[in-house]
Amino acid sequence: MELLRLQDIGKIYVSEGNVSVGIRGVSLSFERGEFVAVTGKSGSGKSTLLNVISGMDTYEEGEMFVEGEPTSHFMQPDWEEYREKYISFIFQDYNIIESFTVLQNVELALMHIEDKKERRRRAVELIKRVGLESHMKQKGSRLSGGQKQRTVIARALAKDSPIILADEPTGNLDSVTSAEIIKLLHEVSRDKLLIVVTHNFEQVEKCATRHIRIFDGAVEFDHRLKTAEAVSKTAESTQTNKENKTKKSIKNGFILGKSIFTSKPKLTSFLCIMLIIGTLGVFILTAACGDVGALFEKNYMFEHIDGRLVAARRDGTATSEEDIKKLAEKYGAESYLRCDMLLDYDSYDNMRVPHLNDYKYFGVDFTYGKTYGDDIIGRYPEKNNEVFLNLPISFKPIFGEKSLEETTVIFSDLVLEVVGVKYYYDNNITPECLFTKDGFDVATAISFITARYPDITLKLTKKDGSVSEMHISGIIPTYELQGDKIYIPDEYMKNADEAELCIFSTFPIYNYNYNSNKQYSFNKQFGKEYFVNEPVDVKLNEHYFDSIVYISAELLAKSAIEALDETYRQFSLFFENEEKAQAAAKLLNEGEYVSVTSDTTYTPDPLSAIESVLAAVVLIPLWLAGIIFLAFFVNLCTQRMLAAFKNDMAIMRSMGISVRVIKIGMYVRMLISLIPAYIVTALGAVLIFTSPKYNEYFSYLYAWQYALIFIGMLILTARVTKKQIKNMFGESVKKSLKGGNVQ
Ligand code: ADP
Ligand code: MG
Asked: Which of 29, 144, 166, 734 is deepest in the core (most CB within 10 A)?
């Protein structure tokens, strides 16, 4: 049976309303072993004939039979498969991939060989056969025309397809090289069907077995010159099972992807850089815009701590420490806090640590079951004047310069020694300040008094009985004064023999769920037995330059705690987890208490809601605009980059490499290009968040946010690749070969 039979084949081109005939009424049949020379004037339809035979162009009329099978019903994938199995194409302008080496170009056609070593061996053998062994590692772009054509021939041989089509293969070569190429072609294709289109019949006369002349799209004559060597070979069954084929396509796709990636180092590194800029840009933008999600955080009435329950007596009376302890035991709370005010305290004015205005304070068992790990610097507090700080790493330079022994913080004018620090990288977490249980009570009591700017007067009495009163602008509580002591600077005492300190303040009842118009007056007098003469050394007092007295922290706290007992009605219980807290809250509410868990007590504070909306209106569009800009940027660059590969892809396709493999190859190349972007971004993130200097300026991102960025980039680049593939494979090979000469 003949290999190919064309029966009344017609091909018409329609472009811009003009109809031109490519070929018409062509009936020809071909056998294996033939060397067919096709000649004819320019524009007569020779190329069209080859394109139709190769399946790179479709035909409109007639029927083409391949080994007896009709092809008029073929769709694109069928043609791809047909080309893969039957066709090797040699063009006038050497369709080799310029950025691939000779070896790579040949190996490309050998992808059906699974074994890497075997593939290499075959490629080298074929390259030797076409006499290019000394140019094996040379890139296509560096070869002469003849060498390029030899590479193409080696590649055609590698494919071992039964049909070799050559469209003016020597059109761009000098006559000596042309003769060599024809001779080589003839030698290597003895058992194949070789169809050569040429201007110059003399050149092929010696080898050709048949001469077909085309005129005006039709066959003018078809001369047999000599009998073709009989070839008995029949196409071997190349049926492979589908699963195997898929696996192979993926494998070949990966090999191809890697080759494409490495073949154009300049372009691919440019692409990598673009993707790095894109990915890093999205990351930095997201981190710099702050946690946009935080804008929608709940506005808690109480500081939310997992398992915290806030309760108060329904009748608005205070609950004693004793009663709270009993409740804690009854409902299985891990710990309790009589005066929990500091947990919900806005500390802006009360804790003077540079740049830090929002602390959480903890005192009960100082961790609520929380562990800060082993990598703490220093230790946990043991005395009342000691604190432990849990801080973002950006604080390290502030505390790190001094040794911990020299480090103090000021809370409500109270100087506290920092005995331990733990730094963390997640700067979205609120810093924490931990006291001992008693230290926490002192701090609570003192902030209770001092936050309300009490009226302080000093009553000075002389020996002669004359009394003078003076206003004091501040009292500074200090742990420097041991016991119940007060120090009045000498300048006030120089004319006095006895002194009395009066602290007066009024404030409302402090209670959850109980509105009281009652005012409580804090009125405390300290007699002469409290005063000492030795000056105290308070380390940080730079904000006082007016009249001040110093008071023992414990003394002030003792007085204030009496007031707290009078006025403080709510308390907190701490449970192992939220569920236990909620169960206890339910039970408590059935009795004489009202209670809520801290996570249920958020209120839609209108002001902060407006703030959130305003911030969202500015921040989110800004972030979005940035992301869209980066996406466009990456899109544009990758599209450009892919366009540069268009011609190569078309060449591969013309070689009959399956579209599937090429597609996989393109995706793989894109994937490989993303790797540096991901690595750089990950390293950038580690660098930013572990170095105190930068940690402060970027809000910490969580794993899911990175995942989102990475997946986003993946989708973006995959989309670009898909689009490119679509516009590359949507058109016929011929068109993309012609139009895609972007190098
Ligand atoms: P040859 O290779 O013999 O020089 P071709 O096969 O390239 O000739 O062209 C045959 C005819 O078909 C010419 O008239 C040419 O203008 C027309 N033709 C070829 N390709 C196209 C095309 N893509 N679009 C429109 N007309 C075409
Ligand atoms: Mg032509």
From this structure: 166
Distance 218 CA to ligand 1 centre (A): 13
User: In this structure, are 287 and 316 located in the same domain?
Assistant: no
Relative to the alpha carbon of 167, which ligand is closest?
A: 2
Residues 255 and 396 in one domain: no
Do 50 and 71 lie in one domain? The reply is: yes
Residue 444's Cβ-side half-sphere holds a number of Cα atoms within 13 Å equal to 28
Q: 153 CA distance to ligand 2 centroid (A)?
A: 19
Domain count, the chain: 5
Mean pLDDT of 639-653: 77
Range of the domain at 460: 452-569
418 within some domain: yes
Q: H/E element holding 675?
A: helix 659-690
Could you read off the pLDDT of 127-149 as tens digits, one per residue?
988 888 899 999 988 998 889 98
189 and 213 fall within a common domain: yes
Cβ atoms of 311 and 598 within 8 Å: the answer is no
Q: How far is CA 312 from CA 39, 343, 413, 460, 596, in A?
A: 104, 16, 30, 43, 10
**Higher model confidence: residue 448 or residue 59?**
59
CB within 8 Å of 193: residues ≥ 6 apart: 3, 4, 30, 31, 32, 33, 34, 36, 162, 163, 164
Beta bridge partners of 505: 522
- C-alpha to C-alpha distance for 266 and 141, rounded to whole angstroms: 14
Residue 209 pLDDT grade (very low, low, confident, very high; cuts 50, 70, 90): very high
For the residues 651-670, what does the mean pLDDT come to? 83
- Residue by residue, what is the 3-state secondary structure of 320-373? CHHHHHHHHHHHCCCEEECCCHHHHCCCCCCEEECCECCCEEECHHHCCCCCCC
Alpha helices (H) along 109-264:
116-129, 145-159, 175-188, 201-205, 242-263
Q: Do 488 and 419 belong to one domain?
A: no
Cα–Cα dist 701/717, whole Å: 23
Residues 98 and 200 in one domain: yes
State residue 357's pLDDT score.
Answer: 45
Q: Ligand 1 pocket: which of 12, 20, 60 to mutate (most atoms <8 Å of CB)?
A: 20
112: three-class secondary structure by DSSP? coil
